[in-house]
Amino acid sequence: MDTRTEPAGEITAGTPAPRPRRRRWPRVLLAVLAAGLLALLAGAGWLYHRTEQALSSIDRIPDALPTLPEARQPARAPEAADAQLYLLVGLDARTTPTTAESPDGVPGWQAGAARSDTMMLLQIAADRKTASLVSLPRDTWTEIPGHGEAKLNAAYSWGGPALMVETVQNLTGLRIDHLAVIDWTGFRALTDAVGGVTVDGTRLDGTAALEYVRERTSLPEGDLDRTRRQQNFLRALLSQTLSAGTLTDPGRLTGLLDTIGEVISVDDRLSNGDLRDLAWELRAVRAADIAFMNAPVSGTAMVAGQSVVLLDEEAAAPLWQAMREDTMADFLASDAAPATLGDTVR
């Protein structure tokens, strides 16, 4: 008689094998993850394509920066090599520098066609965590190379972008890396593209926003208050543009991307890749990280029958030095810093 026992768990003949339980959730999870990844890739691909379209549609201004010998250019501080300085210009014309027709039929700047209505220096710190924006009054009395003394905004009219940049460089001692220009018609369109902008509790569409930033006759300090209004509006525009409400709304985002290329022009040394890299580097910057201020002025005067603004060169010197050396954070914490834009603007 065979007394051997069968090993535990062994299936004897005639006993049906149990059917293994099928665990479907790993496959379902993988399918969901795959679908989500494909959606993200599709969204990223769409956004890259739309961004590339917008960047490619931005007009490049030929010869926008001075082609002076290096010895005649402002020196760069080695410790601030990675910081960037932009000159932002708003024109009182309905055409951008590359859409105006010159006498020989070549698109570009025309003498006397427009004056720069707004001039701001935007210094972006090397660590890309903060930025500083300084407005230069358009009526600033200064030396314009080849033309003698005149109001700052005449430089663009007389010699185009390159003379404008050279004049600002001579005035401040700062080396400007890039130029960006917007015409006022485009400014209105940009405001409407983001669905209007709320300033001091009031929702402004493009037309109302344009009136807000151009007003000066009713303001106590005229052009100085006007520049503060422009800064106040830019701060509100940035806050809204960088908000989730704009960036996650496909309609608003598409409108914004379409409008950027129509209203902004930059110097021809700025490539699409440069702009993409800068946008990525500044992705964490918000309006609160940008310090807005006016260049220090000593007052106004009448010169040759014109009302002009006089810069306070002594007070401005440490400001220009801080921008040149990329030490704005320390400078703004010092007693020498000019007043920055407050919460209340006239």
The CATH superfamily appears as LCP protein
Give me the strand/helix succession.
Answer: HEEEEEEHEHEEHHHHEHEEEHH
Strand content: 15-25%
Question: Total number of β-strand segments?
Answer: 13
Give the CATH topology.
Aminopeptidase
Number of helices: 10
Helix content range: 25-40%
Give unreliable regions as ranges. Answer: 98-107
Task: Note down, in words, how this protein is organized.
With 346 residues, the chain is an alpha/beta fold. Helix content is 39%, strand content 20%. The chain has 10 helices and 13 strands. The protein has helices at residues 25-56, 154-172, 184-193, 206-214, 223-241, 244-247, 250-263, 272-281, 313-325, 328-332; strands spanning 59-61, 84-91, 116-124, 131-136, 141-144, 148-151, 178-183, 197-199, 202-204, 264-267, 290-294, 297-303, 306-311. A 7-stranded mixed sheet has the order 1-10-7-2-3-4-11, sandwiched between helices. Strands 5-6 form a two-stranded antiparallel sheet. β3 and β4 form a beta hairpin. The longest helix has 32 residues, at 25-56. It starts with 24 loop residues before the first helix and ends in a 14-residue tail after the last helix.
Structure, briefly:
The chain is 39% helix and 20% strand. The protein has 346 residues and is α/β, with parallel strands linked by helices.
